[in-house]
């Protein structure tokens, strides 16, 4: 499955970047700088979504005691943290020409920063517990507690009237140029597929690491070599 | 064995923890002195202009209270964990969540409540008005229990780990940010002449939610840590 997702991610990545940076017209208000949105928006959406998926897997692992779901949760965390960081980074790059400063203490930025801290906390807790079973379950509990934050980030633009602009794409229709929208969708798909591919690669190595004492791992061709 | 009522159980555990805390008074005092020292460090760091300090005071006292309450979290379960009392509590027929709730209550009495008492004195150093001092006390009274309740879950998750102290802060601080925002926000709104009611109401809502769910989660975390 990994090559499928990685290759399609790469294709959509190229297509999205091409549409975003060469085809899409310049924005009336924001000029060329708006193009950073093609990375910023998918990264932000995915960083929130991955947290929910991670908390979901963690809950599954905690309730039904399935080992694979806990492994999936810990495989998702680094990708999520990376995307949260990317979203903050590109947001800062965009904020400098638009708002005139790298960082504004507004509700959405702050809560995205908290999300990054939650990811780091999850990874740190998982890393500091030796016993993998206990590590899985303890960090699963933490992930579930932290999932309270995701809706807060998502609705923060509506609840508090802040500097960060609201969503432009709505289900009822959009105020965006068509090519921009296509570019954004392509990038969203690309990041989505990238996250899946990375997670699958990581979960594969986690499985191999944990099952390294078993017969079937020892019989694998890659291991024998 | 005679039946223990709910309140009887709570008062039993609280009394036991308070007696233990009184036997080791130095631990209680360190938290308090840490709080006072951190607050007094700020004027040295940013300069003694009264105008600026008055503006910063609410946030400053709140951040210091947050840090001070992190300091004592590690002690909440560790002593009982080391001498095996915690396992006995887990085996007891009474609900572990209630035991945890009473331990949190006792922890707040020795580490959170003193902060509430001393905060007005520190506020006076920053020339806060009497009204602002009252609101500061109320927010701390509502806020410090939340810090203890959330912190308990962090303490339970990191029980018996190496480097537990720094890890607890890493886990708990992000979760405590809303408390900080609303707590400091309430005091600031009084200073600038707006009604503090909405911030206080939100703080109270967080307290009620946290009291309802967190002891149960903490009990679960303890079971994970001790299995």
Automatic annotation (TrEMBL), chain A:
A biological process term (GO) from this entry: cytochrome complex assembly
The keyword Disulfide bond belongs to this UniProt entry's keyword annotation: no
Topological relation to the membrane, as annotated: Multi-pass membrane protein
Subcellular location: Cell inner membrane; Membrane
Keywords: Cell inner membrane, Cell membrane, Cytochrome c-type biogenesis, Membrane, Transmembrane, Transmembrane helix, Transport
Pfam families, sorted: Cytochrom_C_asm
GO cellular component, as recorded: plasma membrane
Keyword rRNA-binding in record: no
Transmembrane segments: 7-24, 36-63, 75-95, 107-127, 139-160, 180-203
Protein name, UniProt field: Heme exporter protein C
Automatic annotation (TrEMBL), chain B:
Pfam families linked to this entry: CcmB
Keywords: Cell inner membrane, Cell membrane, Cytochrome c-type biogenesis, Membrane, Transmembrane, Transmembrane helix, Transport
A GO MF label: heme transmembrane transporter activity
Membrane topology (UniProt): Multi-pass membrane protein
GO biological process assignments: cytochrome c biosynthetic process; cytochrome complex assembly
Membrane-spanning parts: 26-47, 59-77, 97-122, 134-159, 165-187, 199-217
Domain of life: Bacteria
UniProt cross-references to InterPro entries, sorted A to Z: Cyt_c_biogenesis_CcmB (IPR003544), Cyt_c_CcmB_bac (IPR026031)
Location within or outside the cell: Cell inner membrane
Protein purpose: Required for the export of heme to the periplasm for the biogenesis of c-type cytochromes.
Family recorded in the similarity comment: Belongs to the CcmB/CycW/HelB family.
Protein name: Heme exporter protein B
Organism this protein belongs to: Candidatus Nitrotoga fabula
